[in-house]
Amino acid sequence: MTDAPSDRPVALVTGASRGLGFLIAREFADRGHDLVVCARSAEGLRPAAEELRGRGATVLEVAADVGVEAEAQQLVERAQERFGRLDVLAVNAGIIQVGPMRELTAKEFAAAMDTMFWGQVHPVLAALPLLRRSRGRVLAITSIGGKLPAPHLLPYTAAKHAAVGFAEGLRVEAARDGVSVTVAVPGLMRTGSTRNALFSGQRTAERSWFTIADSLPGLSMSAEKAARRLVGATLRGRPEITLTLPAKVGARVHALAPSTTLRVLTLVNRLLPGPVGSGGPRPGHTATPPSRWFARLTRTDRAAAARLHQHDDEVAPSGGPSGEPA
Known about the structure:
Blueprint: E1 10-14, H1 19-30, E2 34-39, H2 42-53, E3 59-63, H3 69-83, E4 88-91, E5 97-98, H4 106-116, H5 118-134, E6 137-141, H6 154-174, E7 180-186, E8 189-190, E9 198-199, H7 203-215, E10 221-222, H8 223-236, E11 240-243, H9 245-256, H10 258-271, E12 282-283, H11 292-297, H12 299-307
Parallel strand pairs: 1-2, 1-4, 2-3, 4-6, 5-9, 6-7, 7-11, 8-10
Antiparallel strand pairs: 9-12
Helix pairs in contact: 1-8, 3-5, 4-6, 9-10
Keywords: Oxidoreductase
Pfam families: adh_short
InterPro entries: NAD(P)-bd_dom_sf, Sc_DH/Rdtase_CS, SDR_fam
């Protein structure tokens, strides 16, 4: 049953149980929105939702896999039943799979596409009638990986390229109906997601290089700052926002000289760990405990994981995600 109409706008955020998705939901709460928060795991979503309620927002929790059309439709229906309106949709669900191509199967590519492409398409199509009514906004979280290829992230790169294409095309067409779309292209952010990223091949070595890159202040960005900028850009109706200086430079250089960037990235790939026939991806928190120097170098990553509910909604050791490690 729909509650009595409220003057407060409503934001629906997918992948909201941890990391960037949780921070995006928190930003909307702090800016006066009530919330519908979604992740695959009801148990993993609960701690994040409770923290959001503590910031004064009315919060509806919905456990759903937005890569499944029927579940995405039910998610939007639940939002309409509870609030009677929808003003913002932030599609953020994602998975991160790290490892050499020879360690991957079609299963990893399908999982990436289901989460990061169909996980945008299905909720957007379901929500558009409500967003047209409110002249609302969409925040589509893509990645710099959707603008240029990153070694050892091939399923992620392929799915994010598809997500960029969908989000950009959506921006062009939805404007006719009064719906604003912001295409978000973040670079590396300190979200603590390496704990729940999925690693194949030489897992300890893969986790090491990826976590160090994700922890360095000059290369990565505070997730809190990223969320503030993304939500601000969405509410202003900005068409696209790229975050971190390396991401901006990389995207522009690749657009101007794609052959050069492909040659450079091919050389970078040769420096990364090779395949060993490891038998499939496993989450980072199951890897060999890090050395003391590695722990000191990546302390910002561990601190972010503790703040942003990465421990509360963990990917299962089998590699099957219980939520969205974005």
